[in-house]
Amino acid sequence: MTSVALFETTDLSTWLSSTFLEIVLLVLGGIILGRAAEYVGRLVTSRIDRDFHDSDALVRSEAAKHRHALTQVLTWVFKIVIYFLVALQVLDLMGLNLAGLAVPASVIGAGLGFGAQRIVQDILAGFFLITERQYGYGDTVRIVVTSGVVAEGTVEDVTLRITRMRSSDGEVLIVPNGQIIKVDNLSKDWARAAIDVPVSTGADINRVNEILHEVGARAFQDRKLSALLLDEPTVMGVESLEMDQVNIRMVARTLPGKQFQVGRALRERIVTALGKEGIGLAAPVATESLKAPAEQAENGE
């Protein structure tokens, strides 16, 4: 009995000093590599952000936003691969025959496959989202998910599985990529500020159009505002007729994501200019219904 106990103690001591130590080193190495991947990813994204802040650009370029999102995705994928390989090595060191586990694993995998469908769907959707450059870091987006719920905010993180956004109220919104059915990118390439000016039916429409043209011309000559405009704001004319008011639309093409700032500045100028001419508004100046929620997202940045 004593010899058997001594043999078992010797085997345990040998296992602890060899196999167990290897397992510990593998796990620690995996953790260190995962942290290193995060560190490198943060360095790259910080460099991209620093290049933007040090430049004279008012908005991020589409290439910079894509590089930022791609770095986040590659970091996430690298960590997953590291942890998966470490798990396989640990199982092998523990004496589990991976080849012998193929049959039961296939049965278990078939059962879990139904539950994993959503994860696979999220990853595939994230892959196409990144390769097609639908949106990237810093974009202001409006996302419709399968349940019909609308999520809106500024993109802070993109992986193959989820998109994380920050709403205008400061809340963090996490949306699985596979649940996205529609994306409205409000800050890609260029944007448009659309302003409807409601005036009473008795107002001189021609004079109102002239005033709006003057407002657009002066805005385009303003140094600060013209830096956000791609061209001079234009008056589209009468947009709609109602019983007691006429809506006249004015539009301006702007830099990506700057349509809200430009819209506010133009509305202030319009109210002042019409007030000097004694022309009152039939209702508060409002942008398109789809633009109002997006403006709240921009205010929260």
Write the layout of secondary structure elements.
Layout: H1 2-17, H2 19-54, H3 62-93, H4 102-131, E1 140-145, E2 150-158, E3 162-166, E4 172-176, E5 180-185, E6 191-200, H5 205-221, H6 223-226, E7 234-241, E8 245-254, H7 259-276, E9 286-287, H8 291-299
Antiparallel strand pairs: 1-2, 1-5, 2-3, 3-4, 6-8, 6-9, 7-8
Count of distinct strands: 9
Mean pLDDT value: 78
- End-to-end Cα distance, whole Å, is 73 Å
CATH topology label of the domain at 191-299: Alpha-Beta Plaits
Q: What would CATH call the architecture of the domain at 191-299?
A: 2-Layer Sandwich
Count of alpha and pi helical runs: 8
Our estimate of the beta-strand percent is: 15-25%
H/E topology pattern? HHHHEEEEEEHHEEHEH
Q: What is the helix content?
A: 40-55%
Largest sheet: 5 strands, antiparallel
Unreliable segments of 5+ consecutive residues: 1-7, 285-301
Instruction: Report the radius of gyration as a whole number of Å.
Output: 29 Å
- By CATH reckoning, the class of the domain at 191-299 would read Alpha Beta
- Sheet with most strands: strand arrangement: 4-3-2-1-5
Q: Please tell me what the overall shape is.
A: elongated
Structural class: alpha+beta
Description of the structure:
The chain has 301 residues and is α+β, with helices and mostly antiparallel strands. Among the domains are: 2-96; 191-299, 2-Layer Sandwich (Alpha-Beta Plaits), CATH 3.30.70. It has helices spanning 2-17, 19-54, 62-93, 102-131, 205-221, 223-226, 259-276, 291-299; strands spanning 140-145, 150-158, 162-166, 172-176, 180-185, 191-200, 234-241, 245-254, 286-287.
